[in-house]
Amino acid sequence: MVDNSFKYDFPIGNKDPFAKNDSDGNYFVYAKAHSNLGKELDEFSIDILSQNIPMGYKTIIVCQRVLMIFDGKIIQDWDINRDLINNFSGKYFVTTNKPYDIYVKDWDKYIETTTIYKPTSEGLPWTSSFNNYEESLNIGISESIDKKSEILISIVIDSINWH
Predict the structure, then answer these.
(1) Nearest 5 degrees, angle CA 57-CA 45-CA 51?
(2) Lesser CB count within 10 Å: N end or C end of the chain?
(3) Considering the entire predicted model, what is its pTM?
(4) Predicted confidence (pLDDT) per residue in 75-127, tens digit
(5) Distance, CA of 15 to CA of 23 (rounded, Å)
């Protein structure tokens, strides 16, 4: 379950992306917080996003769940929609259900986030995607142990600048 301060409550009534079944779907968006799950990508149209996510300096990442890790072990995996593979960006997004602090050198401050950044990054948004499955899996395993939280790995279907 995602900390409520890092959650958008839409599609209304559905579970968050860390739910361990797929009855509410496998799609969600992330924009400094997680949306609830959706069964169809249409549940995340620009009109719906505009109604639920305030404009600001952020990127909306449209995701499909791949697997969840806890304590260094895969605890859930989902089949990806092969029809979307042509739209797959080639990037993986890794996030945790518990916020943690990370130091951002360029901003000279700590920020609270649920995004897992590349170990070589300074915590900036454009360094939050992983280029391949193995890289995201390896970081997911180590971060699940380090942060004592569930880690969700998803494919990035799309990203939308939200300014």
Answers:
(1) 60
(2) C
(3) 0.90
(4) 999 987 666 655 566 789 999 999 999 887 777 888 899 999 887 765 455 56
(5) 9
